[in-house]
Amino acid sequence: xxxxxxxxxxxxxxxxxxxxxxxxxxxxxxxxxxxxxxxxxxxxxxxxxxxxxxxxxxxxxxxxxxxxxxxxxxxxxxxxxxxxxxxxxxxxxxxxxxxxxxxxxxxxxxxxxxxxxxxxxxxxxxxxxxxxxxxxxxxxxxxxxxxxxxxxxxxxxxxxxxxxxxxxxxxxxxxxxxxxxxxxxxxxxxxxxxxxxxxxxxxxxxxxxxxxxxxxxxxxxxxxxxxxxxxxxxxxxxxxxxxxxxxxxxxxxxxxxxxxxxxxxxxxxxxxxxxxxxxxxxxxxxxxxxxxxxxxxxxxxxxxxxxxxxx
Length: 311
Ligand SMILES: CC(C)(COP(=O)(O)OP(=O)(O)OC[C@H]1O[C@@H](n2cnc3c(N)ncnc32)[C@H](O)[C@@H]1OP(=O)(O)O)[C@@H](O)C(=O)NCCC(=O)NCCSC(=O)CC(=O)O
Prior knowledge:
CATH superfamily of the largest domain: Malonyl-Coenzyme A Acyl Carrier Protein, domain 2
Radius of gyration: 18 Å
Number of strands: 9
Largest sheet: 5 strands, parallel
Number of helices: 13
Bound molecules: malonyl-coenzyme A
CATH topology of the largest domain: Malonyl-Coenzyme A Acyl Carrier Protein, domain 2
GO molecular function, one term: [acyl-carrier-protein] S-malonyltransferase activity
Keywords: Acyltransferase, Transferase
Distance between the termini: 7 Å
Order of helices and strands: EHHHHEHHEHEEHEHEHHEHEH
Helix content: 40-55%
Protein name: [acyl-carrier-protein] S-malonyltransferase
CATH class of the largest domain: Alpha Beta
EC number: 2.3.1.39
Strand content: 5-15%
InterPro entries: Ac_transferase_dom_sf, Acyl_transferase_dom, Acyl_Trfase/lysoPLipase, Mal-CoA-ACP_Trans/PKS_FabD, Malonyl_transacylase_ACP-bd
């Protein structure tokens, strides 16, 4: 009974994001290592003392989200079934490669810090992401073309994330409202991820990835590629896609479909937040899905895994 692990993207960093893992001995080394990437401050302290804006700055946000996924995996990996599927949403895809064993946890954190720095170097203040639900793909494409933005992520159920500069996103939000979109929300992400504004960043990140130390994939793990929802079978081709996702649309609805077609009998989101597990609940109501963020104890997660993903 494979469990599909979903690694969250940026947008829901918060002061309590490490409340389950902060005392887990399995994750302690990772927190200590991460402090080196965060100006010497332990991330468990940092999330409590820094402003919400700082937690959502691009580099800090990418590192915190990746740490959350890796720390959660270290804490719960001995309870997971022998077969898992792993998919990452946006920056979560880098963490997914770490969970699949292709990068060590420390290498994964170093890579995500470089990814963020490279993206920041190609970004303009005001760049960001806008969520729109309730318009067709065609209607969103027309708005993007008209105002100079692009679809960053395709979620299930006529839900899209659009990326671009702030003036373009403001104009699209207004036009989407006029077109009676059901939900329009700015996401707390400071880069126009997965759009052609980051073409150069994708090229630069490819060079970083190809120079990284990559190990064979862990047995029993199926890793899903974000830009097309296919299973990674060839590491070099997969790395090229991991780089391209920086400037290319993420087909998240395809990723979820692939997980289900590969036999996922439950989904566990590693957080922060529960947006991905809620998307699963809407699209695949018969498949149990939860986020680790919804549990108040390690034992609660272990019990859930035990009843939804036996070996
Ligand atoms: C943007 C969001 C906050 C929007 O979520 P919301 O819940 O507010 O909005 P929603 O439209 O999904 O849901 C609103 C209500 O509508 C319901 N609802 C959802 N889909 C529906 C459908 N198809 N039909 C009818 N109702 C529906 C929901 O259950 C919910 O009900 P009810 O109100 O009853 O609950 C969320 O999608 C989110 O957190 N996404 C993750 C953040 C993200 O996209 N990050 C980008 C990462 S980029 C990144 O990481 C950059 C990088 O580094 O590369």
